[in-house]
Specification:
Layout: E1 8-14, H1 23-33, E2 34-45, H2 51-66, H3 77-84, E3 87-94, E4 99-105
Parallel strand pairs: 1-2
Antiparallel strand pairs: 2-4, 3-4
Length: 110
């Protein structure tokens, strides 16, 4: 992103990670542009904890890939956010566990 480090107090991304080819790089960029203590709010598709639903999600991913469309339905968003260095402060799933809302904070280093 064409912004300086620590430019924003809050970054919000709703249903965007599903169509970004490198979601790890995208979250790393969100981390970079957030000031220490800043908040990340994500809403996105995640792997359902229910096996039949998760199987349908995988079928949807394959079908979209055959059409040349990036549409990741089975991401592990919380792990991705934690691995990038955020601290998760809120997490809730909706719609049979396939939609997750997550709020995280970029730690203040001192």
């Amino acid at each position: 992103m064409p912004f300086a480090d620590s430019s924003f107090d809050t970054v919000i991304c709703t249903l965007g990670l599903s169509s970004i080819p490198d979601d790890r790089e995208a979250v790393a960029e969100m981390h970079r542009v957030l000031r220490p203590g800043g908040h990340l709010v994500l809403l996105g598709h995640v792997a359902s904890p229910r096996r039949p639903v998760r199987a349908m999600q995988r079928l949807l991913e394959r079908a979209s890939a055959r059409r040349g469309v990036q549409d990741v339905q089975t991401r592990q968003m919380a792990a991705l956010v934690r691995d990038t260095g955020f601290t998760i402060v809120y997490r809730r799933r909706f719609r049979l566990g396939v939609i997750e809302r997550l709020t995280a904070v970029k730690p203040v280093t001192g």
